[in-house]
Amino acid sequence: MQRLSGKVAVVTGAGRGQGRSHAVHLADEGADIIALDICAEIETNHYPLASRDDLDETVALVEKSGRRVISAVVDVRDRVSLKKAIDDAVAELGGLHVVVANAGICPLGNEVPARGFIDAFDVDFVGVVNTVGVSFDHLRAGASIIVTGSIAGLVPQKDLATGGGPQGPGGAGYGLAKKMLREYTKGLALTLAPEQIRINTVHPSNVNTGMLHNLPMYRTFRPDLPAPTREDAEIVFPLLQAMPVPWIEPEDVSHLVVFLASDESRYVTGQQLFVDAGAGLKLGL
């Protein structure tokens, strides 16, 4: 339908998972893409992050849609490098209309050191603030900012990691970051509304990506087993959602991202939108 024809979108965490899906779906609807990813490991995060090859594959998929794409290896915690990457890409592509602040990590487990709290919070909250901050001067009326939240981050903080639970310090940092994103986006939405710049947060449930399918996450869902397999975790994954599904797919989130990026949602701002198969309802959110 080319709902995003003429728009340029930046996507962080674009190397794989939700970020790749968002970049490809935005391109399919006509947007040119700035695809950013760290393409490196973070020591406290005990599952593999995207590689340069992953980011190159995202680029190839966007180009298959016939759209322009510029990629850069950058850490969203590094505001100076992030600004340069976005400024350079915007200068080449001719503008910026959509910001998808998606990069995130979830370093779970009691073996994660206290540094894991800092790393998770810095990527998942400070990284969003940095992405929005360095993008802001390029945005004009009609622009849309879309932030990736999480229903897991809306669990009461006292239930996350404070008593040596399976989430560990990284889970506590992740949860706090996602909680603070709610208030950040609501406050910024009120501030930017007179300029007709919108910001919304999308809260997924379990998503079928590498952040879900790893041993630390399996142990969180199956603390009764020392080394649970994917099959062990899949037995209990559906318990989180009201609908009888273990997870949603990245494209389920991307469909909402495309809507929020398009002019169809021109009066939607400050919203906390759930793509969660009813998980939030079960948690009483």
UniProtKB/TrEMBL annotation:
Do you know which CDD domains this protein is assigned to?
SDR_c
Top-level division of the source organism's lineage? Bacteria
> What is one Pfam family matched by this protein?
adh_short_C2
Carries keyword Transcription?
no
> Keyword Lyase: yes or no?
no
For this protein, the record's InterPro entries field holds: NAD(P)-bd_dom_sf, SDR_fam, SDR_subfam_1
GO MF term (any one): oxidoreductase activity, acting on NAD(P)H, oxygen as acceptor
> Keywords on this record?
NAD, Oxidoreductase
Report the PANTHER family cross-referenced here.
Answer: BENZIL REDUCTASE, CHAIN DEHYDROGENASE, PUTATIVE (AFU_ORTHOLOGUE AFUA_4G08710)-RELATED
Q: Which NCBIfam families match?
A: SDR_subfam_1
Q: Which family does it belong to?
A: Belongs to the short-chain dehydrogenases/reductases (SDR) family.
Q: What protein is this chain from?
A: Mycofactocin-coupled SDR family oxidoreductase
Name the source organism. Mycobacterium vicinigordonae
Taxonomic lineage is: Bacteria, Bacillati, Actinomycetota, Actinomycetes, Mycobacteriales
